[in-house]
Amino acid sequence: MASKPHQAKSFEEEHAEPDELKGCLGCCVMCCFGCLTCCGCRNVVCRKIIFFPPNPPFYKIADEKLLRIPPDLLPHSEVLTEQDTKLMSQAKLARDLDVRVVRLKTSRGSEVCGCYITHPKATDTILYSHGNATDVGMQSYAVETMVINCRVNVFFYDYTGYGWSAQQGQPSPAHVESDCEAAYEYLVETANVPPEKIILYGQSLGSVPSCILAQNHKVKGMVIHSGLASAIRVIKPSIKKSPWFDLFRNCETIKKARCPVFVIHGTVDIAVPFSNGRLLYDNAPMKIDPWWVSGANHNNIEMDFHREYYVRLIKAFEQFTDIQKKGGSGPNGAEYKVPVTKQPKTSL
Description:
Blueprint: H1 11-14, H2 23-38, H3 42-49, E1 59-62, E2 65-68, H4 82-85, E3 89-90, E4 98-105, E5 111-118, E6 125-129, H5 136-150, E7 153-157, H6 173-190, E8 198-203, H7 207-216, E9 221-225, H8 231-235, H9 250-253, E10 261-266, H10 274-283, E11 291-293, H11 301-304, H12 306-325
Helix pairs in contact: 6-7
């Protein structure tokens, strides 16, 4: 008997992740979270399984200047001692870059740290929301590199309960929302950055505040880097509909984004499964070509794929500018659509 011809797998089949929480186990996890929500314990659970602020923080503020941990200590962050924190020195930025440290007052009454790094030739400003296990000090090195390579200004900030604001309260979904709005308000009202010059950038958990801002404000564009579709979909990717107790429902919020979206996601991401990025891309009303990073996990894209990472970022920023010139502004604006082309297979 002749054998059947081999059929090539589709992109989705080739990069499908196993659903480890299928059946009874997945239902048990969701039921437990639902019960805890009913009991009023949701914020407590969130702090235990979602928010991991570095302790001790990777920076201090002295005389309105950012003092950050030297980069050679970053890999040993889990075992930092009080003596290590004394080795912090004033952030030495590349020539011609300016850094401004600010304290942001949020609508919920807390104060959080924000840092604004500017480039003399920048025309756009990135509003950067970081992940759940980092802070302004740790993130400052990656942000500095982005400023230099992309010639943009970047404003990045901590969430309540992180870094300098660790004594201001415990992190929570409500605080994340008020924190990001305070950051946006600072850029527009204090730094005098026009909304049409602001590009949102959300990495991992930072995709949540970025999607909130994209829904609430008409900005130039948004980058979602290893973002989650929702909290439940991180542990059970195959779920079709969010249960009532689900948190961080980016897959719904992004449908109301008022700007074009660029999605970046690693195909072997085990922290936030690849299907999360795919769903965010599918649900965005206006988007440019995504970057599905073959072989990348959750935290290595900027390092292991750095050349292509910056090439694609710069290209995305240029596409945001082109869309803006043609009048495209998402579901509430013109009907300009960005053509989606085939994903290139080669990397730099």
